[in-house]
Amino acid sequence: MKNKILLVSISVLFIAVTLTGCGSIPFLSTPTSTPLPTNTPLPTATPTATPVPYYVTASVMSGTIQAPAILYHRFTNDTHDATSTYTRYSDFKKELQSLYDAGYSLVSMSSWLDGTFSVPEGRKPLLFTLDDGISSDQLYINSDGTPSQYSGLGILYDFSKQNPDFGYAASIYTNMGDKYYGDIFANNWFYVSEGDAWKTKLANTIVWAIENNIELYNHTYSHVDLSLTKATDISYQLQKNDATERDFLALVNRSDLDTKLGNILALPWGNWPASQEGVDAIKNYVNPEGKPLSAIMEAYNADEPKLTPSVFSSDFNKWSLPRITATVSSVEWIASHSNEIPSMQSCKLGPTDESKASDTATLQALITSAVQAATCPEGVYHVGDQIFVAQNGTVSLYKKATTVSAAPTSTPTAQ
């Protein structure tokens, strides 16, 4: 019996060992847990910034670059007839609006001659000139320092404040020896007071003009007919007029503005000297600051309007710049022929490195690429303080800031 019990016990133990598949008895050993595998985190990728293309915005004027140069003389109220030398205030206000609506913006004569002129995008250049200056009805400064609405340039000033993109610029061609200046405004007109008060008023008017983008030039001292004047007298007329302007500035202690006075002649009545000697006396004239004569303005009747070429035009002649005499009909003609004047366009150049956005060679190459790709036209490019000319298959630096490039470089463009 004992042998049977022992046999059964051994059998049970054998079966238990067999079922557990190990050489130890499970209920006699300590169980061991198997650790789970650990996940090792992958390094996080740092995103690479996508470069943003950088473009340079240029202002471009292409085609035949020309502009109307309007010739005004005197301004008057509506009791006076409108003539070629008298523009009524009411007509002038209408003319300004029509010129603005036609897309024009004013540029200075000096910028027109040196090629630095510019107008807002979509606008067209326009030149305002006034002969027989300075008269009160052309420019009169109120006691509060603002130009009078009873003067042409005062009306223009107010209009430009209401329409800033029209601009404020004009050139006055003065006769300093043939008139007094009306220093008193009464009953809607100007009168000369007794004594020399008018001189101080005129002097301060000249100062205001120079400081507000109105340029003063020469129209001879006493508005002589140059075709009847000897060469020596022509020289005197130019010298005396310039000297008198400077005397007025000195009167109010503003001789510091002498250097702001330019040297352009507007021919009285549009008449040239009869002799070559007289012509040479004009062309060789140098003003008191040593500036040589930079241009001669002619005058055309209202019935034969002619646009004024720019320095970028093939027919530009600084010794013979046409102007259009202002009449109601001639100004209407100017407004209706605005399609003959190019507008300023905007052009994006690039992409490029922002650090090279003002580099001359880089800009030259960008303009070349744009012209070759026909994304921008040939023409005159203003980029920052630099001016380039893309013309006839080349791109050349014309001016950088106020310095003319002595030897402009060129990059070929596709023809």
Please tell me about this protein's structure:
There is one protein chain. The protein has helices at 2-20, 89-101, 109-114, 152-162, 197-211, 231-251, 276-283, 328-336, 360-372, and strands at 54-61, 66-67, 69-72, 74-76, 86-88, 104-106, 124-133, 170-174, 184-186, 189-191, 214-218, 264-266, 295-297, 308-309, 324-325, 345-352, 379-383, 386-391, 394-400, 403-404, 410-412. Helix 2 runs parallel beside helix 4, helix 2 runs parallel beside helix 8 (328-336) and helix 5 packs across helix 6 (231-251). The chain has 415 residues and is of the alpha/beta class. Helices cover 28% and strands 22% of the residues. The strands form six sheets. Strands 1, 16, 17, 18, 19, 20 and 21 form a seven-stranded antiparallel β-sheet that branches. Strands 3, 6, 7, 8, 11 and 15 form a six-stranded parallel β-sheet that branches. 35% of the residues are buried. The chain has nine helices and 21 strands. The protein is globular and about 105 Å long. The chain folds into two domains: 69-340, Glycoside hydrolase/deacetylase (TIM Barrel, Alpha-Beta Barrel), CATH 3.20.20.370; 345-412, no CATH class.
Task: Specify the CATH homologous superfamily of the largest domain.
Answer: Glycoside hydrolase/deacetylase
> Helix count?
9
Beta strand % = 15-25%
Number of domains: 2
* Class inferred from helices and paired strands: alpha/beta
Radius of gyration: 40 Å
Shape designation: globular
Please tally the β strands and state the result: 21
Main sheet: strands, sense, barrel: 7 strands, antiparallel
The residue fraction in helices comes out at 25-40%
CATH architecture type of the largest domain: Alpha-Beta Barrel
